[in-house]
Amino acid sequence: MIKSFRNRDLERLWKSSLQLPQKTLQARAVLRVVEAIDAATTPYDVAFSGNRFDEWTEDGNLRYGAMITDHWLVSFSGEASHAVDVDLDRLD
Protein backbone atom coordinates (compact mmCIF):
# COMPACT_ATOMS: atom_id res chain seq x y z
CA MET A 1 0.00 0.00 0.00
CA ILE A 2 1.28 3.47 -0.83
CA LYS A 3 1.98 5.54 2.26
CA SER A 4 3.52 8.69 0.70
CA PHE A 5 4.54 10.38 -2.56
CA ARG A 6 7.57 12.54 -3.38
CA ASN A 7 6.07 13.80 -6.63
CA ARG A 8 2.91 15.90 -6.16
CA ASP A 9 1.84 15.57 -9.81
CA LEU A 10 2.04 11.79 -9.51
CA GLU A 11 0.05 11.91 -6.27
CA ARG A 12 -2.66 14.02 -7.98
CA LEU A 13 -2.77 11.57 -10.89
CA TRP A 14 -3.17 8.66 -8.48
CA LYS A 15 -5.89 10.35 -6.45
CA SER A 16 -7.90 11.97 -9.23
CA SER A 17 -6.83 10.44 -12.57
CA LEU A 18 -5.63 13.80 -13.91
CA GLN A 19 -3.17 13.88 -16.80
CA LEU A 20 0.47 14.43 -15.93
CA PRO A 21 2.01 17.69 -17.15
CA GLN A 22 4.75 15.85 -19.10
CA LYS A 23 3.10 15.23 -22.47
CA THR A 24 5.55 12.47 -23.39
CA LEU A 25 4.20 10.16 -20.69
CA GLN A 26 1.24 7.88 -21.06
CA ALA A 27 -0.85 8.18 -17.92
CA ARG A 28 -2.17 4.62 -18.24
CA ALA A 29 1.34 3.14 -18.16
CA VAL A 30 2.21 5.23 -15.11
CA LEU A 31 -1.02 4.27 -13.34
CA ARG A 32 -0.44 0.58 -14.09
CA VAL A 33 2.88 0.70 -12.21
CA VAL A 34 1.48 2.85 -9.36
CA GLU A 35 -1.43 0.40 -8.99
CA ALA A 36 1.07 -2.48 -8.83
CA ILE A 37 3.04 -0.62 -6.14
CA ASP A 38 -0.14 -0.01 -4.16
CA ALA A 39 -1.17 -3.68 -4.36
CA ALA A 40 2.30 -5.09 -3.62
CA THR A 41 3.14 -6.77 -0.35
CA THR A 42 6.86 -6.77 -1.19
CA PRO A 43 8.78 -4.45 -3.54
CA TYR A 44 9.48 -7.41 -5.84
CA ASP A 45 5.76 -7.81 -6.57
CA VAL A 46 6.18 -4.80 -8.87
CA ALA A 47 8.60 -6.77 -11.08
CA PHE A 48 5.86 -8.15 -13.32
CA SER A 49 6.21 -9.42 -16.88
CA GLY A 50 7.21 -6.81 -19.42
CA ASN A 51 8.36 -4.41 -16.72
CA ARG A 52 12.01 -3.46 -16.27
CA PHE A 53 12.56 -3.47 -12.50
CA ASP A 54 15.67 -2.33 -10.64
CA GLU A 55 16.92 -1.61 -7.13
CA TRP A 56 19.67 0.71 -5.88
CA THR A 57 20.88 2.52 -2.79
CA GLU A 58 20.13 6.24 -2.42
CA ASP A 59 21.38 8.10 0.66
CA GLY A 60 21.81 4.79 2.45
CA ASN A 61 18.25 3.62 1.73
CA LEU A 62 17.21 0.91 -0.70
CA ARG A 63 15.00 2.20 -3.56
CA TYR A 64 13.18 0.28 -6.23
CA GLY A 65 12.02 1.34 -9.66
CA ALA A 66 9.93 0.24 -12.61
CA MET A 67 10.61 1.70 -16.04
CA ILE A 68 7.72 3.34 -17.89
CA THR A 69 9.69 4.28 -21.00
CA ASP A 70 13.40 4.52 -21.81
CA HIS A 71 13.48 7.91 -20.05
CA TRP A 72 10.89 7.65 -17.25
CA LEU A 73 10.87 5.57 -14.08
CA VAL A 74 8.46 5.24 -11.15
CA SER A 75 10.58 4.73 -8.02
CA PHE A 76 9.80 4.05 -4.37
CA SER A 77 11.22 2.89 -1.07
CA GLY A 78 9.82 0.08 1.02
CA GLU A 79 8.79 0.36 4.65
CA ALA A 80 7.37 -2.92 5.99
CA SER A 81 4.52 -3.65 3.56
CA HIS A 82 4.14 0.02 2.53
CA ALA A 83 5.65 1.97 -0.34
CA VAL A 84 6.97 5.40 0.64
CA ASP A 85 8.30 8.35 -1.34
CA VAL A 86 6.79 7.19 -4.63
CA ASP A 87 8.34 9.36 -7.33
CA LEU A 88 8.40 9.87 -11.08
CA ASP A 89 11.98 10.23 -12.29
CA ARG A 90 13.37 11.32 -15.63
CA LEU A 91 16.47 9.43 -16.67
CA ASP A 92 18.75 11.33 -19.03
In short:
This protein is an alpha+beta fold and 92 residues long.
Write the layout of secondary structure elements.
Blueprint: H1 8-16, H2 27-39, E1 53-58, E2 61-67, E3 72-79, E4 82-90
Antiparallel strand pairs: 1-2, 2-3, 3-4
Question: Would you mind describing this structure in some detail?
Answer:
There is one protein chain. The protein is of the alpha+beta class and about 90 residues long. It has two helices and four strands. It has helices at about 10-15, 25-40; strands at about 55-60, 60-65, 70-80, 80-90. It has a four-stranded antiparallel β-sheet, covered by helices on one side. The termini are far apart. The mean pLDDT is about 85.
Mean pLDDT: 86
Provide the succession of SSEs. HHEEEE
Question: What is the count of DSSP helices, taking H or I runs of 4+ residues?
Answer: 2
| Share in helix | 10-25%
Category from helices, strands and their pairing: alpha+beta
- Give the oligomeric state: single chain
- Detail the poorly predicted runs: none
Q: How much of the polypeptide forms β-strand, as a percent range? A: 25-35%
The number of E-state strands comes to 4
Distance between the termini: 29 Å
Strand order of the largest sheet: 1-2-3-4
Main sheet specs: 4 strands, antiparallel
From the alpha-carbon coordinates, what is the Rg to the nearest angstrom?
Answer: 12 Å
> How does the overall form come out from the CA principal axes?
globular
